[in-house]
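step: validate -> pass
step: tokenize input -> pass
step: predict -> running
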Amino acid sequence: MKKNVLKVFAACAAACFVSGLVFVGGGADTAKADDGVICDYNFDSDDLSGLMQKGTTKYTIEEGRNSSLIEGDTSKNCLKVERGNENDWWERTGFKFDLKKLTPGKQYIVTIDFAHDSEPATVTKDGKTYEFDDMRAFKIGTYFDGGYEEGSLQGTDEEKNEFRANNTAKYGQIGGLAGTWNGNWERITGMITIKEDVLKSDKEYYLHLFMGYPEAVGSSGAGYKCDSVTKEAYYVDNFSIKEYVEPTPQPATPTPAPEVTATPAPEVTPQPPVVTPPIADDGLEVGYEDVVKGITYKVTGKDTVAAVGFDKPKASLSIPAAITLEGFTYKVTAIDAKAFKGDSIKTLTIGNNVQTIGKSAFQGCTSLKKITIKSTVIKSIGKAAFKKTSAKATVKVPKSKKKAYQKLLKKAGLSKKAKVK
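step: predict -> pass
step: emit ->
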């Protein structure tokens, strides 16, 4: 489910595109922005100048909590956004930034990290009740109060295209859609270029961070309502808008040919061919997800991945020592928080390379009775990782690690009646 959890949300965005939503830009993985910084917040200071705040929106610096997505980041804080009761689809009371600070015609890179602490929720709409787990969907939207709506355009296709090229739509989107589970950080990056008409207008033009529910649990999108917007708080970090700078190609420096002096050819003794092993490139981008044998994995490092959940739930779960994605081999070193929470697993095998098991990873797997841990390098097992698994569970562990793992498992909620061998 996790691989496809946003598919209906994405479909909804596509529907909005038809009715007037214009996407501003896609991802910018190779983008480089050295100068032209419009804003760059890590929220280690109390300076929130530039952010727009309306109605019951409340911004609070959250000390001691920050995004984990930048390696070596020394910042310590993030921004908590509380939205009150005036929220709507276009987030007029959510996290906002004034886009009129940008220069028309220039390309900018927008980046924002986000997280939430929301719990599973129940939404009643048109007499129907929808259950949602603790995944929340996010996107960066744009709103121009003086912009056009697609349905209002008249004339030929050529005339409409010319109008779009010189005018700003009322609704837009920067980058793609992303979802994250309770307590996890995620990032959206995209590009935007603003037009002259927004500066000539006295109407507001801003970007906003939207947070909504993804598809209802077990519904596969059936009956999903695009206007199921939450009013829950969320967290923002590493928000920046920087001018995009095209990389400058470096001309090759010609090397003068060395002077060649003819020498007699040496006598050549045949030698066996030298086999040079292939050199792999840097592999897949951190955060890339794909499915292998019914399990979704996420790249976490140069040669490591984490298991993040089922693509197709099954009763027997085996986490291997390593997997292959797009021709690259990765060690499976982690199982994400809530990765298999509540799934109907009966048998579980944890591979040799797993080092960490996230909080609530197997919580509520009430049918889980047989667990085999092959790894001898587990450093941590998160809170409630094995809470509410079967009281009759049997856990087989390496002999050298029995005492240490028994302690970790009990702290992680394994039943006192369960046996660790």
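step: describe -> The first helix runs from residue 7 to 18.
step: cleanup -> pass
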